[in-house]
Amino acid sequence: MDLYKKVEQFVQESSSKPDRHALRTVFWIKELYSQADKAMLIAAIAHDIQRAFKKDKLDGIRSNKKGFLDEKHIKYHQEKGAEIIGDFLKKQKAEDDLVNKVKMLVSKHEVGGSKEQNILKDADSISFFENNVDYFVEKLSIKVGKKEVRDKFNWMFERITSSKAKEIARVWYEDGMKRLED
Ligand SMILES: [Fe+2]
Ligand SMILES: [Fe+2]
Asked: How far, in Å, is the centroid of ligand 1 from the Cα of 78?
């Protein structure tokens, strides 16, 4: 089996339900960047792997006042994910260059930085709005409050670097914000 497929299987098996957000992040990265290489596709499918390994699904959301946007949690989420996927790739005997590039991408997928880190971040945001708005509006806003979810939507939208990605995400973002009006 090819390495990307092995990672996809690892991601899907680690998750309690089929991870559509991850699959669509791969789709959107190809849409935004036709030159995306194997490391970028692996980083895209695995970028949120940390979430599959935590015990409490609300860990980092309710445990602090800043909720979803807590910088410490974001840093932990990115870096722990990079470590988990790096270890998996090493076990598969992947080349060091590939392992290092995947780790570099995952370790900044929330905040971006380099051109390719930004492309992953943008694809992540599009896939988030495409797939997660219903869950955040209908379920999570009841648990954590509408303001918290509005802040998260604004952050996920404003962090997008490319105007093309922003235009793709805009319709889902605006729909979500409208549904959160008081
Ligand atoms: Fe993430
Ligand atoms: Fe994500």
From this structure: 7
Distance in angstroms (rounded) separating the CA atoms of residues 40 and 46: 10
Domain count, the chain: 1
The predicted model scores a pTM of 0.93
How far apart are the CA of 8 and the centre of ligand 2, in A? Answer: 14
Q: Structural domain of residue 69, as residue ranges?
A: 3-179
Closest ligand to 131 CA?
Answer: 2
Is pLDDT at 105 greater than 60 in this prediction? yes
Q: Which SS3 state, helix, strand or coil, does residue 22 take?
A: helix
Q: Residue 100 has which token pair?
A: 């290092």
Report the CATH number at residue 127.
Answer: 1.10.3210.10
Q: Which helix (H) or strand (E) holds 27?
A: helix 20-32
